[in-house]
Amino acid sequence: MDFKTDINYRRQTLIKLLDAIQSREGEIIKALQEDFGKSAFETVLTETYQVVAELKRAIKNIHRWAKPKRVFPSLLNFPTSDYLYAEPYGSVLVIAPWNYPFQLAMAPLVAAVAAGNSVTLKPSELTPKTSELVAEIVRLVFDPNHVEVYQGGAEVTQKLLSRRWDYIFFTGSVAVGKIIAKAAAENLTPVTLELGGKNPCIVDSSANIALAAKRIVWGKFLNAGQTCIAPDYILVQNKVKPKLLDHLKQEITKAYGENPQMSADFARIINAKNWSRLADKIDSDKVYFGGQINAETNYIAPTIIDEPALESAIMQDEIFGPLLPVISYENEQEIETIISKYEKPLSLYVFSDDKPFAKRMVRDFSFGGGCINDTVVYFGNARLPFGGVGHSGMGAYHGKRSFDTFSHFKPIVKKANWLDIPLRYAPYGDKLKTLRRILKWL
Ligand code: NAD
Known about the structure:
Bound molecules: nicotinamide-adenine-dinucleotide
Largest sheet: 7 strands, mixed
Strand order of the largest sheet: 10-13-14-9-8-15-16
Number of helices: 14
Strand content: 15-25%
Shape: globular
């Protein structure tokens, strides 16, 4: 077994992994259902399909991605052939969160393996059924010297962090991201941090309000709002706010019925701690729609909060649940004032038929990625690298970019011996003039 140099071996293990996942789709759906009531539809769309697609892409392209690339040489070095070698970092630590517990553990694992690394995976302790299934699949497919899974919470992660790694890939909260970055700095270990943020969703008066409401409701209440790229809050032009509120209400009812608690399509909050955190953010005076909660089942209804004060609890940090604040604005300056209060978000969405306005929003704010006239779906194009900026993270992955993330690209210049231009060698004497002439020409 030489996963570091044998590309065929890597490819074979990925094929085995694909087979193991495809044959267990039913078990994966069941595990996520048991962990937090996630529907089969959402599990297939946002968990298994994403991993299967990454696997198929890696299996198809691994030889091409891993092959040394010929690069155009510099005339300054003439005569040379120049190459870029993709080299695995070595041993990689992948730490996953609970909110997409299958996808966010498996997708980085696939890429790290494709790039030739050994992997230690720490799935989330908050989704025990899914994490156990992930461990079982890994045990079945991989030699333990190649990929191993460590189960447990913060203590286990802390222990793992005290070891030296060649790369750490972390998905989770900003607070824990800082712990990871500090630990990595001890050994100058490079990191990817996939974090969160407060994602604005801007709706201007030119937008198709009915369609905007439908797409916002889908992106916000998918996974019961426990999505790092979900719209966190809406900024709506005040003229169209009543219409938007009305459509949001209609769309929630269309999607989840009169009582979303009875809907098989609406997930639960992951645990009691997060449930209380979210329940505490609901100011009943500000609830426009929803607001029902049930501690026994960790249920929180899709809820629209109308005009919360920017100082209120709900507008402090990432909500990460099915609460949707709607705040109106009069002009662009107010959008700028509100968005600039927060750290750079992971996503930004703008609904508008006014092209220059939409372009300005995308250009003027710094954020990980986003959509014009939709939410969340930019995640689904593997040709678009996915990752944050500033406090929403560093580094990116998906598709070929995932392979690159787990590879060090080693530049190699192969010099020919048939010619050795004497100019660069000391003693330099009056060679400076010639050098200047050549540099000008280059
Ligand atoms: P989290 O940071 O609490 O946990 C993530 C991982 O870190 C888990 O495996 C956990 O066991 C471990 N961990 C927790 N506390 C730790 C500590 N003190 N020391 C070391 N390790 C520790 O995050 P979470 O609650 O699982 O996930 C939610 C967060 O993740 C949200 O902020 C969300 O925005 C973010 N997220 C980001 C992305 C992305 O791709 N950018 C995707 C999903 C979630």
